[in-house]
Structures are given as structure tokens and as C-alpha cells.
């Protein structure tokens, strides 16, 4: 094993000390894709949710997820494993629950990446073709994105973190310019935060869309094995991610509804719903053509950054399960500390899924993105709720005296997440952005995956007891 750092090894270790707090934070914030969230999700929330009250929806969702993050971050000091939710659930609730969660995570994150391939290809093609007067198919841009992700992921997570840091700074910068320009031009209308406005329209849908803007922050724990000081860097990165997303989304959406008028924000957003260009159209009025074109080009950067970050997260689930013997061992090999085989399998799966939709001639946004991203979002919300339960059980078993961080906060966060999940299931076609009948059936995959995970646990316990006994992380 002396040559493990430079050659391929079965069950090899990930590269330790590759990431600090900043690197982990950049990885997860890039997955959240702030610019994409403001262009796509904020517009949907304003149009279909509580209109001008959307900034408060982001704040409320941020508080719920911060409560979840308190217990999640504390548990990271005891469990350091690339398996993320799988590791947490196994440590607290046992191997069957861990594998049930693992199957949900595996499907959710991999579907999310497949949807991101479609989003990246379609929106990149739309922006680049429009700005540079080209007429190239979305499949070409999706293919280029996939190749770039594949090549970067083989260089190691530290290289990805550097690329994502630059991408994140660029996309956040243009939004800050927009926020400042609105403040200087007309100021912010704080009436958007009044109870009457916040509770107008459908606050339930507003909270649902706001919560989807945070999807990806929970991946901090996935990089604990590659962190320089996981006991400190993972909790810090978790808090940085949740607070940054909540505050930034609230301020930018406040600037947006202030620019178009709080009272008529909902109707204006509905006028732009089909084109999905509420922020871009408003930017045209506030910043002018040049900076709006820059915003559109940075939207391409944001989409690619999200694809790369989500790919890194999904790859680590494949790697962790292969290392534990649940998936083929070959996927648990590392080269120079990078899970190259898991990475190749992940991007291969996403490419095949996208190719199937392309061959069938289905619209990448209306079908590929809506189905895969919608299901992935719901799966991750379910995992977050399961993790809240796991945190409470884990620390109650240890009789931990810190009741706020190990019981009250994760309990409240879990209750809030269950509420969001109910909203997501009841409004899944709206969240996914498609009224196709088969897309409305996708939530039923979750109980099927949970049963499959439990069945796998039973199989391993009977037929491969050594593998079953070795499942799960080391707990400090």
C-alpha cells in the first residue's frame, strides 16, 4: 500500500488535508448556485408563491435549515465519513436504516446531476446562442459540460474547489452589483417583510421554493475525510453555507421585488413565468444591456459550477458504498486520493440519462430537468428530515447534556423539514415545473428505494455477514 497515493488501490483512501473551511464552503455554495437560484427559483417563488413576500420565505427557510444544521454540524465531530447521510443514519439508527437512506441518497444525488446536465446544456445553449448569435443544439453544450466536469474531477477535489471558488465569486459579484444598483436607484421596500405581504398568495409554495434554494448545503459532511480539520471545518462550513444562502437570497429577492414593486410583484412575475426571465428583465431596466449580458454569461458559469459541485457530492456516495462492499468494489478505488472510478460511473450515468431524453426528442428543461431535479430535491429533503431524527437519537443514546444543539434545534428543524416535504409531495408537479402525469408519480419512488435499501440490508446480513458487520463509519 506504500504506492497508494500515486497508483490505483481497492478501497483506497481519499486525499486527506485537501480542503479547509473555505474549500468545503465553496464546494457546497457552488452546488446551491446562487445566480441560478435567483434567476429560476426566486422568479417561481414570487409568481406561484407569496409574491412580494418571497424575501421573508427565504429567511424562514433559512431559520429552519439552520436549526437542522446545528445538530448536523455537531454530529460531524463524531462521524467523519464520505458517506454523508448514509454514515449518519447508520451510526444512529442502525445498518438497515443507513442502507435505506443510502439508496435514497444514491438515487437523489445522481438524478440531480442528470437534471443538472440538462439544465446546463439547455440554458447554456440559450444564453450563448443568443449573445453570440449562434444556433447550436443543447446536446453539444451538455456534452462539453460533461467532458469538463469529468476532466476536472480527475484532478482531485482541491482543484474543483479552486475552480468553484472563482465561479462563485463571479456569480455572486454580479448579483451584488444588482442589489447595490437597486438600493441606489430606488431603495428597498421593507413592506415586503410585513405580515400581510408575507402571508399573501401561497406562503406554502413560497417556503417550498425557498427551501429548494438551499439544496446542496448538506454536502459539507461528505468532504469530512478530505478536510484538514473536520471537527472544526465541517461545522464552520455548514454554518457559513446556510447563513450565506439565507441572507443573500433574502437581500437579492428583496432588491428584485423592490425594483418591480412589492404590490404587483406576483403579477409581474407571472408575466415572465413562461420565459423564466424575471431577474434578467429587471436587470435590463436596472443595470442596462451590457451588465445584463454579463449576468447571462455568468449564469452559464453558475450552471457549470453547480454541475461540478453536485457531481463531486454524488461521486462520494458511490465511493463510500463501494468501499463498504454494497456496490462493486472497483468503484471504491482511488487514484492519487481521488475517487476516479466512482466519478466516472457517476458522470456516465448522468450522461446516459440525458442521452435517453435527447434521443426521445424530449425538451431538456420541461422533461429532463423537471423530472430529475424535482425528484432529487424531494429525495434530499427526505434525507435531511431523516438525518434530523438520527441526530436526536444519536445524542439521546449518548445522554449528551447539550439539549439545545442535540435535541431542541434538530427536533425543530426536522419538524420544519417534514412540513416542507408534505408541501413538496402535495405540490410536486408545481415544484418540478411540469404537469406530465408520469412526473407526478416520481415521489412514489422514495418508498420503493427505502424498501430496496432494507431488502439489501437483509440480504447482506444473511448472505454476506462480514460485509454487513463492517457497514457504517467509525464513531468517535
Automatic annotation (TrEMBL):
Residue stretches making up the Amino acid permease/ SLC12A domain? 28-428
Predominantly, its location class is membrane
Places the protein is found: Membrane
Check the record and name the Gene3D superfamilies matching this protein. Amino acid/polyamine transporter I
Spans through the membrane: 23-48, 54-73, 85-116, 136-152, 164-184, 196-217, 238-262, 286-310, 343-362, 374-395, 407-426, 438-460
Q: Cite the InterPro entries for this sequence.
A: AA-permease/SLC12A_dom, APC_superfamily
Q: Which UniProt keywords apply?
A: Membrane, Transmembrane, Transmembrane helix
Mode of membrane association:
Multi-pass membrane protein
Q: Identify this protein by name.
A: APC family permease
Q: Which organism is it from?
A: Amycolatopsis echigonensis
Give the classification, highest ranks. Bacteria, Bacillati, Actinomycetota, Actinomycetes, Pseudonocardiales
Amino acid at each position: 500500500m506504500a504506492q497508494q497515493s500515486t497508483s490505483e488501490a481497492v478501497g483506497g483512501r481519499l486525499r486527506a488535508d485537501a480542503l479547509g473551511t473555505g474549500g468545503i464552503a465553496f464546494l457546497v455554495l457552488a452546488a446551491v448556485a446562487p445566480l441560478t437560484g435567483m434567476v429560476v427559483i426566486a422568479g417561481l417563488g414570487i409568481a406561484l408563491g407569496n409574491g412580494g413576500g418571497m424575501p421573508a420565505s427565504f429567511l424562514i427557510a433559512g431559520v429552519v435549515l439552520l436549526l437542522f444544521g446545528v445538530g448536523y454540524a455537531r454530529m460531524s465531530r463524531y462521524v467523519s465519513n464520505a458517506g454523508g447521510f448514509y454514515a449518519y443514519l447508520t451510526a444512529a439508527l442502525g445498518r438497515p436504516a443507513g442502507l435505506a437512506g443510502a439508496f435514497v441518497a444514491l438515487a437523489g444525488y445522481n438524478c440531480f446531476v442528470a437534471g443538472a446536465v440538462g439544465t446546463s446544456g439547455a440554458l447554456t445553449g440559450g444564453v450563448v446562442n443568443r449573445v453570440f448569435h449562434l444556433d447550436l443544439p443543447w446536446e453539444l453544450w451538455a456534452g462539453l459540460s460533461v467532458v469538463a466536469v469529468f476532466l476536472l474531477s480527475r484532478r482531485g477535489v482541491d482543484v474543483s474547489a479552486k475552480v468553484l471558488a472563482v465561479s462563485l465569486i463571479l456569480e455572486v459579484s454580479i448579483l451584488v452589483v444588482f442589489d447595490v444598483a437597486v438600493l441606489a436607484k430606488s431603495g428597498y421596500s421593507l413592506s415586503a417583510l410585513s405580515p400581510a405581504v408575507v402571508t399573501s398568495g401561497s406562503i406554502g409554495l413560497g417556503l417550498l421554493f425557498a427551501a429548494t434554494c438551499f439544496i446542496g448545503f448538506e454536502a459539507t459532511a461528505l468532504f469530512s475525510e478530505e478536510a484538514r480539520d473536520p471537527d472544526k471545518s465541517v461545522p464552520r462550513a455548514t454554518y457559513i453555507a446556510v447563513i450565506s444562502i439565507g441572507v443573500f437570497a433574502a437581500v437579492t429577492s428583496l432588491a428584485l421585488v423592490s425594483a418591480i414593486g412589492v404590490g404587483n410583484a406576483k403579477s409581474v412575475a407571472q408575466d415572465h413565468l413562461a420565459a423564466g426571465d424575471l431577474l434578467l428583465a429587471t436587470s435590463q431596466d436596472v443595470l442596462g444591456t451590457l451588465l445584463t449580458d454579463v449576468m447571462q454569461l455568468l449564469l452559464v458559469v453558475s450552471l457549470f459550477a453547480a454541475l461540478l459541485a453536485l457531481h463531486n457530492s454524488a461521486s462520494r456516495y458511490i465511493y463510500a458504498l463501494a468501499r463498504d462492499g454494497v456496490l462493486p468494489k472497483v468503484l471504491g478505488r482511488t487514484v492519487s486520493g481521488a475517487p476516479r472510478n466512482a466519478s466516472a460511473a457517476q458522470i456516465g450515468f448522468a450522461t446516459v440519462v440525458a442521452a435517453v431524453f435527447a434521443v426521445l426528442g424530449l425538451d431538456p428543461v420541461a422533461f429532463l430537468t423537471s423530472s430529475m431535479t424535482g425528484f432529487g430535491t424531494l429525495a434530499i429533503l427526505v434525507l435531511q428530515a431523516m438525518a434530523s431524527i438520527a441526530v436526536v437519537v444519536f445524542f439521546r443514546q449518548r445522554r449528551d447534556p447539550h439539549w439545545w444543539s442535540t435535541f431542541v434545534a434538530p427536533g425543530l428543524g426536522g419538524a420544519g423539514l417534514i412540513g416542507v416535504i408534505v408541501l413538496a409531495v402535495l405540490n410536486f408537479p408545481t415544484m418540478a415545473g411540469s404537469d406530465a402525469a408520469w412526473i407526478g408519480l416520481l415521489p412514489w419512488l422514495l418508498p420503493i428505494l427505502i424498501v430496496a435499501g432494507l431488502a439489501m440490508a437483509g440480504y447482506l446480513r444473511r448472505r454476506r455477514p462480514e460485509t454487513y458487520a463492517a457497514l457504517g463509519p467509525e464513531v468517535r
